[in-house]
Amino acid sequence: MGRTKAKKKAKSKAVDPPPQDSPQKGPSISSLLEKAQSLVIQCDYELARRFILRILETEPSNTEAQELLGVVELERGDVDAAKKIFTAMISATENSTAPPPPSAHLCLAQLCEDEPRLALQHYQAAIDTLMGQLKGKDKATGEDLDNEAQIKSNIVRALIGQVEIWMDPSYDLCFEDDAEKNCENLLATALQTDPGNSEALQSLASVRMSQQRPEEAKDCLEKAWSAWKDLDLGMSCYDSRVPPIATRISLAKLFLELELYAPALLVLHGVMSSDDQEVEAWYLEGWCYFLMAEQARETGGKLEDMAWEELAKDARDRLEACQLLHLNEGHPDMPLLDHVRTLISQLEALGIQPSAPLDEEDDDGEGEWEDLDSEDDDGDKISLLFSSSFCSHTSLGNIFSFLSSALRMAKLRRDTHESQLFSSTERPLRIVASGTLFLTHTLSLPCQPAPSSVIRAHSVEKNRGGSASTLLSLLAQFPNVEAALVAPLGGNDEGNMVIRDLETEGVSTRFCKIWPGSGVPSAWVFHAADNDTRTIVNHNPLPDITHEEFVSILGPLLAPENYMLFPPAESPVPATYPPSSPLPPSISSQSSPRTPGTPIMFNPNSPAPFDWLHFEGRSVKTTLSNITGLDGLARERKWRSHCVFSVDIGRRGRQGVEALIPHADVLFVNKHYAQANSPHYAATPRTFLLSFMSTAPPHALLVAHWGSEGAAVLSLPTREYFQSSGWVEDRSTTRTPSDSRRPPPQGRDTAANSTANSSEAHDMRSVRSGSDFWADGRSRTPSSSAFTAGNYTSSDARSHLGLGTPQTRSRSRPRGHVNRYDTTQTEEDDNEDADHDSQGTEVPESDDNVVDEVGAQDAFVAGMIYSLSRRILPGPPYTPASGGEDVRPANMDHDKGRWRLDECLRFATELAGRKARRRNWDGLADEMARAGWFNNAY
């Protein structure tokens, strides 16, 4: 981010300064193209499109940019726009001696789904061009050998594309007399071009099967599979010898058709070791077990010493996992889902029930999901969760294979015609937060009441407080978030109303301890206008949850196998009750209901019962027992590296709170805590976080919220430090000429977005990661967040604080409206050692713009939790198992789609800034979405 900009500044000092009237030199075309390619790999298509358009403004005939723009349009689902681009690329070379790029013909061949003969012509034109390129490589050596292999691979795939058209029963071509002969000739050419090519052999096997020659088909498949079956399929992203996932899935289908179930399962297991969220792989594996169970029933009840009931149970488990993944990811292939549900219904009719979640009774206590993740002994295998179309390619050079995958997904998206602002493939976040909940009643008075006096209040406001419940309510506004609260709650009418509100907002209360007939902890604040003083009266009728109660409440989540004999607990409040206060549809629509029969917070891709566990840091003794007990259980059951423990120790200075620090993966602190505990280091967040290093575990991530002054994050294992200024409202309504060129943000609700005017939409815009330096040439917003980053060693950090200050800026413009509810919170108890109080209710000084600084801190914590869960956490190096060592591979392709730390900090800072300038919490997630944070797939 900022490093690139800093280098350009440093370079300019070495030459004479340019005249003031000369324009500032922008980045080179090659730099812009490289950045655009990296954004495509990260699935950031909207921003990549802006880079490409800027390149084409300078060089309209740049072939690489045109080609990449077509790729982006396909990934965005605009097939017609992609077709126009590739057609224009071919038309531009009609009067030139240079042939058109083969990728344009390859793409158009796949886009001509209703014109098979035209598709054959495009394939042949691409083959002719590629053959010409191959002839020029006869004497190639060294680096050119890789390019030659790539050309051969593309030729083979184009020939296979022609074979598939001739064999497709939906076209009349397959009924022509020479169809079979044409297929034989095309495949002979493919194997002559690239002998032993696994994809050509697979295609030949398919032809042999259509010719009723199964033995020859088996021989072809065995040859195709033997070329790569012994490779490390878990590292397929880094080994070009491993075929793409789509090719391996096709091989599994052929094995299934030939009733070769064992090799089909091995191929599918390799696919899931590369991408354990591949829906079709789960489907095929379930179908394979289903077919095996059917065969076992017909042959005496067993197949290779496995009972048909056992095989059917395996089929049910895989199909249930496939169904859950399909729904969670919003996968567009609905016929697949329909077949999965049909198979599940048939198994249900046979009396086959799914296995208990995380059942650890088999395999000496090792659960089924542990077996799937047992590639590494320490259980710390990094999941490759990005798009399978890139998972099998190390570069954009293999344009044909990538475009095939892109086109397939574009067609599926077009069939479902869904336009959502939030990505449908967002990684789920299952979070449990332990803390408190209370109500604050604020009475605005002309003066403090005298004893035995009667006084009239100007206004009375009632608000709900408590850090854990507040941040969960905010997180529940985001997609694919399951939020559960652990807290004591009152069971009287007022308490039931609070519970209904939480459930309506998407926060589960099934892990709360309900005290029937008891009230809600409350604080009454008398705010006198004459001297601006506050008198606070607290009442807390509920005791805190003890360690024993904590373990008992979370029992069904932590050890579900011990609770399978009991019926599931009902929600404490019927779901049909209306909320006490209306919520926007955007909030209630984010969380989707769990499928009936699905275990609590179930995620088939993680052995952990949750992804994140957050503690408010209240009663230190109880919290310490809770966190150490869970840590021991997680290590024993080998899912500690698959979840995050975080503690907010900055709410108030509590005696002994430092005992919690060694057990947390993420530590949240604030300026007030720093001033109270380390006043000598509290001048800046950097000095305080560096002083904090000696007490924090080596794998920890330290996060500091500094109020209106900004925030900072320090990563101990990666030696990274980032700092942001406060998110400042830009009240300017004048748009610069270049601003007017920017397209309006794409909303997830078209109708809602159409009601907003263009200036309002522009005011909502913010772009992640400071990429405007590349996409627009420079930054213009004076109110954007500034970041500093630098690398250091632990010894250097303690001796000096000069971490380097390369900076970058980005646009960040708020909507600027004021909401109607005040969330000002109050301190319930001044005794720092008291454990039975409602904390986190300080009332700081505020200015004309900031109306809720304490709420902003809760929003900041929620923003960091959500953004860090975008494939940074859970996982190494921020786990105790890694010992603070960054165990990620040197090849950083596994980071595709992962948010960076500076992006996480920017997201949380902006979310906190927006909350600070509004009085309620409704629609904050949608506001961030309209600002542009979720325009891209992650």
TrEMBL record:
Residues 750-759 have a biased composition (Low complexity). Pfam families: PfkB. Residues 574-585 have a biased composition (Pro residues). Residues 1-12 have a biased composition (Basic residues). Residues 358-376, 825-835 have a biased composition (Acidic residues). Residues 451-541 form the Carbohydrate kinase PfkB domain. Residues 1-29, 354-376, 574-597, 727-849 are annotated as: Disordered. It comes from the Eukaryota. PANTHER family: KETOHEXOKINASE, PHOSPHOTRANSFERASE SYSTEM TRANSPORT PROTEIN. This is Carbohydrate kinase PfkB domain-containing protein. It comes from Armillaria ostoyae.
